[in-house]
């Protein structure tokens, strides 16, 4: 029986692991990020992979750097290292311990190398994305690609829903191909370096909405950061989170001309939400959260005479 060490951290990492289990491989150990490195709040959240390891009796490691447990990994004498959204660079000295090291990456490489491929696919308004099975090398996501599988991106997908879809796709692609890869029956293909793009993790200040751009770009930005970490803006010097928006169609016609409003200005608050001007069209906010408050439907502010959010105010 082939012995595998598995590395992963967020929920999408669970699906390839389950595929390996369902195929009968022996999972010798699981490696995931330290608790204080998982999640934006850095408050000792535990990763879904660690939780799964605990519940299913797996040995697991949480090194600050994977090189710190090189001796332990060597003693396990596993055949393969499989990773999915692990979140750390793995040096050659660790990769060389195994017959082969394979990464399950959530993009159609060479597009979106890096830690946030799903966010960038949404932000850029891509119509499709997918999963790549690739050889691991020291350089980030630069290894040869064994196989890819794609899915369409729906206009209403957000980061959460697309992660779920890609998780299911990752399960399928691993189950369909991993044995063939182990048996050297699939020849990996080099990535075209002329078409490489990167999807690096966003910094906190990069999660702020720029209202002076096209409505579709704003909508894509909001859904790329939903349900976590959630895009933000400012209103009357208060930090406001915007979790969900919708594009305006012909049935949402706003009589007032767009040119009468500044980008970010609230035009109307109706039963559907908060209508805001952008550079090109109006956009509707559907879910909004004031600082220190709960996330609410934006329609909550409809007909509030003394409400905090009113037409004429400007998101900045």
From TrEMBL:
Belongs to the Fmt family. Residues 8-174 form the Formyl transferase N-terminal domain. This is Methionyl-tRNA formyltransferase. One of its GO terms (cellular component) is cytosol. Attaches a formyl group to the free amino group of methionyl-tRNA(fMet). The formyl group appears to play a dual role in the initiator identity of N-formylmethionyl-tRNA by promoting its recognition by IF2 and preventing the misappropriation of this tRNA by the elongation apparatus. It is an enzyme of class 2 (transferase). GO terms for molecular function: methionyl-tRNA formyltransferase activity. The gene is fmt. HAMAP family: Formyl_trans. (6S)-5,6,7,8-tetrahydrofolate binds at residues 107-110. It catalyses: L-methionyl-tRNA(fMet) + (6R)-10-formyltetrahydrofolate = N-formyl-L-methionyl-tRNA(fMet) + (6S)-5,6,7,8-tetrahydrofolate + H(+). SUPFAM superfamilies: FMT C-terminal domain-like, Formyltransferase. The keyword Transferase applies. InterPro entries: Fmt (IPR005794), Formyl_trans_C (IPR005793), Formyl_transf_N (IPR002376), Formyl_transf_N_sf (IPR036477), Formyl_transferase-like_C_sf (IPR011034), GART_AS (IPR001555), Met-tRNA-FMT_C (IPR044135), Met-tRNA-FMT_N (IPR041711). Residues 202-305 form the Formyl transferase C-terminal domain. Keywords: Protein biosynthesis, Transferase. It comes from Spiroplasma litorale. Its EC number is 2.1.2.9. CDD domains: FMT_core_Met-tRNA-FMT_N, Met_tRNA_FMT_C.
């Amino acid at each position: 029986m082939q012995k595998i060490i598995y590395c992963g951290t967020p929920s999408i990492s669970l699906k390839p692991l389950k595929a390996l289990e369902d195929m009968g491989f022996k999972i010798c150990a699981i490696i995931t990020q330290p608790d204080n490195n998982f999640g934006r709040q850095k408050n000792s959240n535990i990763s879904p992979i660690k939780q799964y390891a605990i519940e299913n009796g797996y040995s697991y490691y949480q090194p600050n750097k994977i090189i710190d447990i090189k001796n332990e990994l060597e003693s396990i004498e596993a055949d393969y290292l499989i990773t999915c959204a692990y979140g750390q660079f793995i040096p050659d000295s660790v990769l060389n311990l195994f017959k082969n090291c394979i990464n399950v990456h959530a993009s159609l490489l060479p597009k979106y190398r890096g830690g946030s491929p799903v966010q960038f696919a949404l932000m850029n308004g891509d119509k499709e994305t997918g999963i790549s099975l690739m050889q691991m090398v020291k350089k980030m996501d630069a290894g040869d690609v064994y196989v890819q599988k794609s899915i369409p991106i729906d206009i209403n997908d957000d980061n959460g829903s697309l992660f779920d879809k890609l998780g299911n796709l990752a399960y399928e692609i691993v189950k369909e191909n991993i044995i063939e890869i182990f048996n050297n029956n699939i020849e990996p293909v080099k990535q075209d370096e002329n078409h490489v793009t990167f999807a690096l993790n966003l910094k906190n200040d990069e999660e702020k909405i720029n209202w002076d751009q096209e409505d579709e770009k704003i909508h894509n930005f909001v859904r790329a950061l939903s349900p976590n970490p959630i895009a933000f803006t400012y209103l009357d010097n208060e930090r406001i989170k915007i979790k969900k928006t919708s594009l305006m169609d012909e049935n949402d016609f706003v009589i007032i001309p767009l040119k009468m409003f500044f980008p970010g200005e609230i035009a109307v608050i109706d039963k559907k939400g908060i209508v805001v001007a952008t550079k090109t069209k109006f956009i509707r906010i559907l879910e909004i959260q004031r600082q220190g408050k709960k996330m609410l439907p934006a329609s909550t502010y409809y007909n509030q005479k003394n409400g905090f959010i009113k037409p004429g105010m400007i998101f900045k």
